[in-house]
Amino acid sequence: MWWTLGLIVAVVAVWALHDIVQKKHSILHNFPVVGHFRYWLEHIGPELRQYIVTSDNEERPFSRAQRRWVYASSKSENNYFGFGTSVDLEEHPNHVIIKHSPFPLNDPHPGDANFDASYSIPSQKVLGEYRGRRHAFKPESLVNISGMSFGALSGPAIEAINRGCELAGALHNTGEGGVSPHHQHGGDLMWQIGTGYFGCREKDGTFSLERLMEVVEKNPVRALEIKLSQGAKPGVGGMLPAEKITPEIAAIRGIPMGKDCLSPSSHREFDSVDSMLDFVELLAQATGLPVGIKSAIGNMDFWSDLASQMATTNRGVDFITIDGGEGGTGAAPRVFSDHVALPFKHGMSRVYREFVAQDLQDHVTFIGSGKLGFPEQALLAFGMGCDMISVAREAMLSIGCIQAQRCHTGFCPAGVATQNKWLMAGLDPTLKAARLANYLVSLRKELLRLCRACGVSHPAYMTLDHFELLGKGMATQPAADAFGYDKTVTQAATLYEGIVR
């Protein structure tokens, strides 16, 4: 025992001496040994706040209440909350209020002739129909999965999402990392083409139409999405560190081993709206697929020019994915996450008004993205003119993400955002696929229930007249006024002229 005690004292003494003589950290010099607790507590601060300090509605990016709803929904557990709202409605600015109808529609129940256990909500628009794409199609679900790449996410996570999309009839966006074997488990794909052209590039990094055609012919790709920017880091390219690049990732992306995988900030194939539309039509004519763009919203000159050229030329995108500045599944510079690109509601309203001004709103499918994986936010997006929405981090939560915020380190404890074999082994793709499907079905179920409470049968029939925003104290504001939607824009946001029951 004395030997053990002496050894411990000796180790602590050496440790203290090291802390005193080192020059890097003044805290450790001034408080040897015990000063390390400061750094340990700082390191586990997010976990302490997550489970001990914060209330149900405080934490960001997703509160405990939001995570609890996703977790319960994904496990088909009771996702109700008891004893009334925990939100202070009179002191919660911009709180969304949905104005229900005095004559709501009845919900079908198990045993009714029109009951649908999958709560399927097909899109009311045919993707690619207006421009006559050969493979235009009507998406089975207006709730789909947003772009998350293999590489940023683990193979088992991608497989779970793809299997879950097949179960729920949803589209799976590949992210810019290319189409991998993990995407080939039954779910239909929207292939995202980023600035690195991963999976469809030459060795020098330029775009290869031949390679793109090979991948499209071998996989269930239903649409192509050209990524201009994303909410997490708009205006800058991405980077996958060399240590996270496996031989499988290198082969899929067409990149060398041992080097950081860099995505440029901008595309090499086009540098203007005019040349971008030429690139869009090249892809559409070669593949017959609907082709769209994804972008966070900053400078509005681009969108004015795009709407103008689509109105005056025989070229155009089939869909536009609006990504909010609050979005982002991976790592990004904090200043870009916090200060670059408009939040979804501001960005969507500005772009949509531009297209209404050119009478183009029915020619394009609008897809919303950016923390829209909750019923009230999704419904508001449909009221603003969205035809579909895509979810990402909420999907990650449904397959086990605990919001540890370690995505950028490669040590995701849930095995979702990592390439660590030990951590990935804890994620069962079959089990998690069912949980993703359950979450998507639950979200669609809540959307339908909200629509029926408002007296309409489909989210496409919602307008901003159905919403109001609470301010501090007793202030309120109609949502249409808040987002600058006059009657023309509000009516344009509804797919049909009347309310169809």
TrEMBL record:
EC number of this enzyme: 1.4.1.13
GO BP term (any one): glutamate biosynthetic process
Domain of life: Bacteria
GO terms for MF: glutamate synthase (NADPH) activity
Family statement: Belongs to the glutamate synthase family.
PANTHER family in UniProt: ARCHAEAL-TYPE GLUTAMATE SYNTHASE [NADPH]
Gene this protein is translated from: gltA_3
InterPro entries, alphabetized: Aldolase_TIM, GltB, Glu_synthdom
Pfam families associated with the record: Glu_synthase
Domain Glutamate synthase: 138-456
Name of the protein in question: Glutamate synthase [NADPH] large chain
Keywords, ordered alphabetically: Oxidoreductase
